[in-house]
Amino acid sequence: MGLSNRTLTVAIIVFCALALPSAVAAQTQITDATANGGASRDSYNPNVDLDGSRIVFRSDADLLSEGRVGGDEEIWLWDSSTGFTRITDATANGGTSRDSYLPWIDNAGTNIAFRSDADLLSEGRVGGDEEIWLWNETTGLQRITDALANGGTGRDSYESVISANGNRIAFRSDADLLSEGRVANDEEIWLWDSTTGLSRITDGTANGGTGRDSYEPSLSADGTRMCFQSDADLLSEGRVANDEEIYLWDETTGLQRLTDTLANGGTGRDFYDCAISGDGTRVVFRGDGDLLSEGRAANDEEIWLWDETTGLQRLTDTLTNGATLRDAYDPEISDDGVLISFESDGDYLSTGNADGITEIWVYDDNTSSLTQVSTASASDRDSYDTGISGDGVYIAFESDSDFLAAGHPASLEEIWLFSNPIPVELMTFPID
Predict the structure, then answer these.
(1) How far is CA 312 from CA 122, 282, 307, in A?
(2) DSSP state, 17?
(3) Integer Cα distance of 240 and 12 in angstroms
(4) N or C end of the chain, less CB within 10 A?
């Protein structure tokens, strides 16, 4: 490895400190959709706590042998010591075809935010109204929003994320949650605080906006900073709708736009899927805009990083190795902002990754290096939707690939947990 003996010793110590607990192997299949006679049952949307000991996800599989019928999407918690816990029950209170989605867990693994149209508290709520919910390990379930308030009909709340400290939840909604007389269809970013309650962060109707929306929030560890995407003219710049930009909200300083889809002659270019580091100083996202004036063509989705000090940098190049129309999506970032996970069908390492096969990747900003986490077991199997632990040691994702060569059906999506694949030599540092 080209290291001195003294440096090598330190490298081994660092590696051991990041080793997996005994309950978790280097690659572990967390769910088994085939268990208990399951057919066409799947698990999706994993999210990981600080140290990888708990994973939250959604699934319609009968993971606890309860005789549950497929089609009811529930929120599940996997614990490395205790196994599975089902957080929701969509069938309770006469529910039919009610589901829960997109869970998010705090660093301690004790608070989970998600959305659901199920009547989880026996309130007699009618299915179809998507609400934001909070589950706490001690106190149980709490409904954060009320789509029916203020005469609301067909108003919904989605895409909830929880801060690392568990005190704040951000989400999008077109509901009139503060009795402002807001009209449905204007999707706004909202913030719920465990002490102060609800506040609206954006106003898509400002500056003459119509049908402009804000989506996909991500919170810093303490919830005082947030990134999200929007086509609204939030800063009164006269921007035209349909250009999706990444914004940063700071509790003290307000809103800042991080991208410019119109730069360098861009038309119909957009930025999505932002995630913010624990300290709020770094934001990762995907997009096809030519932010660095490189002459890049639209339709090539790349992973980008914004740093409060150094500005913008492009982390991927899907055009490498003769690729055309390959894309990178769904970035997530560790608390320190160094490790970034994402999915892509790009052939970054000249490994011959076939076009159309989506794999999980990790970018290490300390070394400017990419590591391929997954390798599809067949041409029609893909891996998606990464979640990275706060400490960066664990990566959870969904896949129908047969990584363990156990004959797993290609039609079933499972949750997988991998240890940090970054080679030990990339974790070393000189001590002199």
Answers:
(1) 48, 10, 6
(2) H
(3) 54
(4) C
Nearest partner of 107 among 280, 334, 330, judged by Cα: 334
Closest CA to 134 of 157, 166, 175: 166
- State the Cα–Cα distance between residues 186 and 172, nearest whole angstrom: 10
**Nearest to 218, CA basis, from 257, 275, 172, 171:** 275
Q: What is the DSSP string of 229-285?
A: EE-S-TTSS-PPTT--EEEEEETTTEEEE---TTGGG--S--EEEEEE-TTSSEEEE
Closest CA to 404 of 378, 371, 377, 372: 377
The answer on pLDDT for 154 being more than 80 is no
Distance CA 131, CA 146 (A): 7
Supply the pLDDT for residue 423: 38
Coil, helix or strand at residue 13? helix
Residue type, position 354, single letter: A
Provide the Cα torsion 388, 59, 62, 373; round to 10°.
Answer: -30
By three-state DSSP, how is residue 118 classified? coil
- What one-character DSSP code corresponds to residue 296? P
* Per-residue pLDDT tens digits for 162-217: 999 999 999 999 999 998 887 767 899 999 999 999 999 999 887 666 668 899 99
Q: Which domains does the chain have, with CATH numbers?
A: 24-427 (2.120.10.30)
Q: Is 150 exposed, middle or buried (0-12, 13-18, 19+ CB in 10 A)?
A: middle
Instruction: Please choose, from the candidates 352, 368, 275, the residue with its C-alpha nearest in 3D space to the C-alpha of residue 314.
Output: 368
> Count of residues for the chain?
432
Beta carbons within 8 Å of 428's beta carbon, 6+ residues apart: 1, 3, 7, 8, 10, 11, 14
CB 204 within 8 A of CB 213: yes
Distance CA 388, CA 231 (A): 28
